[in-house]
Every structure is written in structure tokens, then in C-alpha cells.
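quick one, two chains, predict together pls
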Amino acid sequence: MQNGTLETAGQWLAEGRKLAIATVIETWGSAPQPVGSQLVVDAEGNFEGAVSGGCVEGAVITEAMDLIGQGGHKLLSFGVADETAWKVGLACGGKIRILVEAVK
Amino acid sequence: MTPALLAEVLAARAARRPVAVITDLASGQQRIVAREAAADDELAAILDKAFRFDKSGVEQTEKGEVFVTVHNPPLRLVVTGAVLIAQALIPMARAVGYDIWVVDPRGAFATGARFPDIHLHAEWPDEIIPKIGLDQRTAFIALTHDPKIDDPALDLALKSDVFYIGALGSKKTQAARLDRLRAAGFSDNQLSRINGPIGLPIGAVGAPEIAVSILAEMTRALRLG
């Protein structure tokens, strides 16, 4: 947990930006990013960090931007068994579960 | 996550204070627990394991599913003695994730050519080690065989929370060292923290194998306590 994504979140917050944080909380199979990996997103969709090898970032960022407006948290699951996930492309065959939370 | 909690986590990380954030996955509610307070927490067993193995993860509790995020400071290795075993140990320790400091007042030993890409200090340990700071995510190793250099550093390590103390030297050297430290006021209980002769007994031959035995002993102390 020393990837510096939280430090980026702190900087962005200090700049007055609204943001949400996504964290990989569980993985099964060959998930590309380990548990604890994080992504920070601001209201414009700028992001730092990673929760997968680029496969599901698009979907996570969309969900995160929704949460920035409304607050709260959300749990997302992506995997090959999930058709939506397949569409966004976790083609590595792994499954991941992600916590998305607004910083508010 | 509230901005206040984020600020608290960032302050802990910057100050090298180990903390965990516990998120109730149903409600989204979060709280922060410092490692030193973890033993008294209702999730003491889970937190102990998480800190020790440096492993964040989802846990089932009586109150439902929680996500425990561990924020452990990076590991550090502080060595006295810019010697051959240190040269062998450094790339291995780096691969395992340590930031490395080598302290040796003998300028001929402590050269950037012999020790590139680490924190190298050609100074006396009692001058530089307090500035480096020894904490519970730090391992300390004495490798010079020279009491003038190793003893002041061991003195500082014994007064700190380092998770591992090792000292190179034969059983005879080790006995003489313990006598000196006992005379300096340390109790047998305190001195039992020193691993000496250093390293797991794996019949190591030569500096690289001794380095393996030291790193294995450090890892055991880190993970199993």
C-alpha cells in the first residue's frame, strides 16, 4: 500500500477538487492488480492509479464520478462470468471486487 | 471516506506510523486503528495478522463483512559495516522491499563505488543513526566486528522498537559483546533481542549464503515475531 495514490488524493483534495477513491478489495484467479490497489478519480474524470491492467478502469471511473455527486460508497464486481464485466473486458480470466467511495 | 479520515491516514503514512482502516462494507462506515492500539481492538486477531503479514483484505466478522486496509510504512534496513557481507546482502534485501542505509566511519570502506544506490553514511553511528530513526519497521544489523563502531549502534537499536537486531561474530565474539553491553546496563532480557551469531543456521559458506541466512532470519522476525 505504498503506491502513492492516497497521497495524490490528498493533494487533489487540498486543491479543492471533489473526488472518489476505488480500491481492489478481493481478487480471484489471475487478477492483474493485487488487493489494496487504488485509483483516485476527480469530478472531471481525471484519474491516477490502477485497479486492473486497464480492463475495467473505464467502468470504475464512470461509477466513481456518479458517487462524487451523490456521496456514499458502492461495491463493484468484475469477472468473466459477468456479462457486463466481459464487455468492459477483464479478459485475463480473473475476478475482482472493488470498493468505490466518495471523499466527502 | 471523509476528508478528515484521509488526512489522518496520510499523516500516519508520512510519519511512518502503521495504521489500518476498517470499512464496514454494508454501511460504508470507516474507522482508523493504530497498530499499537490493535491488541485492544474488537478485531485484534484480524488486525494482528493484517499488520504482521502486511496484507489488506475482506474479513467476515460478527457485525458483517469488513475490508481491512493496512498502511504499513516501507521496511528499512540499517547496517553498520560497509563490508563484503553488506555488499552481498543489499541486492537481496532490496528485492524483498527494504530501503537500505549503510553506516561506516571508515571512509575507505564506505565509498559510493562499493555501495551505489543506497543511503551511505561515512559517519559514526551515534551521530547518524538518531537522524535515520529506528522504528518497528526497521531491521538493524551490526557487521563490522569493531566494538567502537558496532556497540554504539547496538546501544541505539536496543533502546528502539526495531523488529530485528543481528550482530555478526563467532560465539566468542558474541559473548564478549554481551558482556560489554551488560556492563553498559542492559539486562539479559533486553540483550536476548540480539540475534548472534547472526543468521539462521543453514551452514552458509561465503558472503552471499550468509546474506541469505541473515535475510531469512530477518523475515522470520518480521512475519512470525
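The first strand of chain B starts at residue 19 and ends at 24.
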